[in-house]
Design a protein that fits this description.
The protein is an alpha/beta fold. The protein has 2 domains: about 150 residues, Aspartate Aminotransferase, domain 1 (Alpha-Beta Complex), CATH 3.90.1150; about 270 residues, Type I PLP-dependent aspartate aminotransferase-like (Major domain) (Aspartate Aminotransferase, domain 2). About 35% of the residues lie in helices and about 20% in strands. The chain contains 15 helices and 17 strands. Helix 2 packs antiparallel against helix 12 and helix 8 packs parallel to helix 9. The chain binds pyridoxal-5'-phosphate. Belongs to the class-III pyridoxal-phosphate-dependent aminotransferase family. InterPro entries: Aminotrans_3, PyrdxlP-dep_Trfase, PyrdxlP-dep_Trfase_major, PyrdxlP-dep_Trfase_small.
Length: about 450
């Protein structure tokens, strides 16, 4: 954050944009994976914004569903009413009780979902007669949202720094499961997982196992590290530790969930299920702002048996128009078998990235699952040494890519003080093979131009 300037520059817009110095170009339309700028230039939305637009833009079924619902009912406060889109969306998501998740709580976005997940875990502790459970364990190199509770849970040091005095001390952090940087030379995957599990166990012991309400993690780390799945067996080990100590497991699938990694939920590839799950982005695909918390039967039953009410609420809970949009998004994904395309196009994307960057001096890692892939840029490939953060390489790549009609999602993460640059790709699930090839072609040109 910069210090105050003596003379303020003229305001370029009445909207407080991400940058107060520049106004981004106006988006005026979209179709499929393309966004249209004022003036007519078309840009490939290669990361769906921030892994949001899972069906691309202006999908006719979603537009029609929104129009239908808007003509009928947009909003009715949940203090008085429920509504059909919310009931139907909950049925769609948890009607079959996947992994024991039995009820859904609809909010307006990812940070709200994470806040609700944290508070649910705390309330579960109280309802089950364990008021000492006030502590949460999270991981460094994670992002859980920008509101104060979610930011406290996150491990993105740069985003947290200005607000450190406001953040909650209830959260402590252990190492991420990040083999590229964390696995020691000569250490096999099982040994790495065992070391991470030992560290988590030690943190439970340090805090007192009876004081921990929950462990929270992203199954595939998104924004902070760039599409990092955990090594095989990691989440089974985590689940066992949580169970042993009576703590809940919260999975934050705000970015990695709702089909992004090739299964509807990322945890379905880990052989475990969470007690509480946060979802957002791909839930509504950007057609409406919506997030949700999916809650295990035993957690909602404890509340029903206890105080009988989740002590948390927002004005826009179960917003009818937002739920109608999300319901149609989820129906399209299911009815059109789009997860198969996520898997097939995800494999093609990985293959094309490997062809283009596999021998690149400055691309150290190409990783991810489904249509959730990233390249990590390094100064020195053999030593996995990152570029000087002052170069803000990821920002330069973003700029070069945008100039070539490609919107991608770059980031710089910090792992125990080491910052790395990555570029994240998360195209819509409807992406075609030739569009995958074009994305990689344009990204290749942008990386070469930025270096
Ligand atoms: N959790 C994860 C894993 C995310 O990636 C994000 C956003 O990028 C959030 C939470 C916060 O979601 P939102 O920006 O909708 O508040």
């Amino acid at each position: 954050m910069t210090a105050a300037v003596t003379e303020a520059p003229p305001r370029p817009s009445r909207v407080l944009h991400r940058s107060s110095r520049a106004v981004p170009p106006r988006a005026i339309g979209g179709h499929g994976i393309w966004l249209v700028e004022e003036g007519g230039r078309e840009v490939i939305d290669a990361s769906g914004g921030a892994a949001v637009s899972c069906l691309g833009h202006q999908h006719p079924r979603i537009v029609a569903a929104i129009q239908r619902q808007a003509g009928q009912l947009c909003y009715a406060h949940t203090g008085f009413f429920t509504n059909a889109p919310a009931e139907d969306l909950a049925e769609e998501l948890v009607g079959a009780e996947p992994g024991g998740l039995a009820q859904a709580y609809f909010v307006a976005g990812g940070s709200e979902a994470v806040e609700a997940a944290i508070k649910l875990a705390r309330q579960y502790a109280i309802e089950t007669g364990q008021p000492a459970r006030t502590r949460f364990i999270a991981r460094r190199q994670s992002y859980h949202g920008n509101t104060l509770g979610a930011l406290s849970a996150g491990g993105n040091a740069a985003r947290k720094a200005p607000y450190a005095p406001l953040l909650s001390p209830a959260f402590s952090h252990v190492s991420p499961a990040f083999a590229y940087h964390g696995q020691h030379p000569g250490e096999d995957e099982a040994a790495y997982v065992a070391r991470l599990a030992d560290e988590l166990e030690a943190e439970f012991q340090r805090l007192g196992p009876g004081n921990v309400a929950a462990f929270i993690a992203e199954p595939v780390v998104g924004a902070t590290a760039g599409c990092v799945p955990a090594p095989a067996g990691y989440f089974r080990a985590v689940r066992a530790i949580c169970d042993r100590h009576g703590a809940l497991l919260i999975l934050d699938e705000v970015m990695s969930g709702m089909g992004r990694t090739g299964t509807l939920h990322a945890w379905q590839q880990e052989g475990i299920a969470p007690d509480i799950q946060a979802i957002a982005k791909g839930l509504g695909g950007g057609y409406q702002p919506i997030g949700a918390v999916l809650v295990a039967g035993r957690v909602v039953e404890a509340i029903a048996r206890g105080s009988g009410a989740f002590q948390h609420g927002h004005t826009y809970l179960s917003h009818a128009l937002a739920c109608a949009a999300a319901l149609e998004v989820q129906r399209v994904i299911r009815e059109e078998g789009l997860l198969e395309n996520v898997v097939a196009m995800g494999e093609r994307l990985q293959r094309r990235l490997a062809e283009r960057f596999g021998n690149h001096h400055h691309v150290g890692d190409i990783r991810g699952r489904g249509l959730f892939r990233a390249i990590e840029l390094v100064e020195d490939r053999a030593g996995r040494r990152p570029f000087d953060p002052a170069l803000t390489l990821h920002a330069r790549i973003k700029q070069e890519a945008f100039a070539r009609g490609l919107a991608c999602y770059p980031g710089g993460g910090t792992l125990d003080g080491v910052r790395g640059d990555h570029v994240l790709l998360a195209p819509p699930y409807i992406v075609a093979p030739e569009e995958i090839d074009l994305i990689v072609e344009r990204l290749g040109e942008a990386v070469d131009a930025a270096l």
